[in-house]
Every structure is written in structure tokens, then in C-alpha cells.
Amino acid sequence: MQSYSIGTPGQAWNDEHKQQWRDAQSIERSYADEVLAKLPNNLKGFSVIQYGALPYDENRYPLYAVVSEKISLSKPTVLITGGVHGYETSGVQGALQFINNEMALYAARYNFIVVPCISPWGYETINRWDPMAIDPNRSFYANSPAPEAAQIMAFVASLNTPVLVHVDLHETTDTDNSEFRPALAAREGTVNHNWNIPDGFYTVADTTRPQLEFQKAVVQAVSQVTHIAPADDDGRLIGEPVQSEGIICYDKKALHLCGGMTEATYVTTTEVYPDSPNATAQICNQAQVAAICGALDFVLAANI
């Protein structure tokens, strides 16, 4: 059994263990400087809306979305979410890059709800969890204990518009195996089994609505920017069977993932690999933007 620095192997954490974990975290970067400062001051046709704040420090962690000023019933609505896992940097920075450089090009055809950083405490401390040792991306359900999930769900519901496309921006990193999966096993009192970290980009479709042609379009768009992760010797990525090049499926609603928070027809979770020797931070950001644009272009081409 792989040991972790907190807790007793085989025994789930109690509140004291969670406090030990929380006390071990520290601020590594600035949400104000790296995220809030990049929100547009005056982007024609869009409003920057504060939809909440994290209770850990409401002044430090206000939550923002960039939303079409007028939600038109004649246009489909697109939800783009980044930073559900705060440590997955390109999800946040890719969303901001899309907002500032690409979104206006699609404004005539879509309504947008773009939330670049759902978990700012996680962004600052480079963490998967929130301060309560809860994974926000397993917390998208009614009466969620994770304020990151609860507040974005409430905000999207308040807009009262059906979502057609949801692109949720993520990364798979080497620290998934070195830190976050061992921490999860320690928290739960279970045995950790690391997976092979895929070298390259892949997407996670929804088992109940995979829309494989849509996923393929996303993968194809990203392949122009960075390499697509090959399947392992068992034909899998992170333990899941590959459906097509760079595509696996999760049951997003059953797992309470961000990608399952709406009834959107077209849902994809991007997974960028920032630790590849063939990747840079900017390549990773560009891959996220390419994934978004590939998703939007597919739906436009389908005349939906």
C-alpha cells in the first residue's frame, strides 16, 4: 500500500487529518494578478458578472463569468468552464485567451457563458481539492458541499437558458500520480493504483451522450496545435477504453462531474498534458482554445 504523509493507511481521514492537509497548503500564485486582471474591461456585447464568492475569503476569491449581454432565444447557448480543478492551469488561461481573442468572432451565432476559474483557492494553492479536502469536480449535485460547484450551478440555472454545448477545460498532469491520487486514497482509506499518464491531448465524452463525431472534431482541431495521446498497450487512456483516437467516456452525471451539470447535447471535457517534453504553457493554452473553436465550428457546420 502506498503511504501518504497524512493519516494511517487503510483508515479514512477524520477532521483532524483534513486540517493537517489544509495547514500544509500555501499560496503559490495570484488569482488577482493572473486571472482577474485578464478579464476584459469593455468587451462589446458581453458583461463581466460576479456570480458569487468563496466563503473561505470572499474579498480574495470573488467568482466571475463573462456572459452575453442579451441571451437570445434564437441562438444556442455555449457554456465554457475552466479551473474546476484549480491546479490545471491551461484550463483557466485557455478560457481567458478565448474570451479575449476568439469569443467575439462567434458572438453573432452563439450566446456565451464563460467561467474561467471556478476554483480560485485551488488555482492559488495549485490544488485539485478545495480547503475542505473536497474535489469540486465530484461535487456537482443538489446541496453540494463544495461552494465552487454549488455557486456555478446556481448561477447557470438563474440564467434560465438551455445549454447546447458545454466545453469543460482540464489537464492531466504528472502530479495526478505523484500527489493527487495518493492523497485521494489516503483520504478515503483505500489502496492507490496509479494510471499511466497519457502523453498528449485527449477528450472525455459523456457515456450517455457521447456524440463521437463532435468529439472527433475537437480532437482534429487540437491536433493542429499539439499531439494527441496514443492509447496504452491495453487500448486505454487513464484506465478507460478508447472509443476513437484521443476519446474516452465517463458517466458525468453519475460521477457528479462539471460536464454533467447541464442537459447539453454536446459535452466534452478536454485533457491537456502540460508535462510533455513537446509542450509549453502557450501550446497548452492554444490547445484549449482550439478545442473550444473545434466544438463551436462543428455545431455551426451541422446547422444546429
TrEMBL record:
SUPFAM superfamilies attached to this UniProt entry: Zn-dependent exopeptidases
Parts of the chain that traverse the membrane: none
Gene3D superfamilies: Zn peptidases (3.40.630.10)
Keyword annotations: Hydrolase, Metal-binding, Zinc
One annotated GO biological process: proteolysis
Any Pfam family hit: AstE_AspA_cat
Cofactor(s) required for function per UniProt: Zn(2+)
Alphabetized InterPro entries for the sequence: AstE_AspA_cat, Peptidase_M14
MF annotations from Gene Ontology: hydrolase activity, acting on ester bonds; metallocarboxypeptidase activity; zinc ion binding
Domain Peptidase M14 span(s) in chain numbering: 23-304
Family: Belongs to the peptidase M14 family.
The name this protein goes by in its record: Peptidase
Organism expressing this protein natively: Salinimonas sediminis
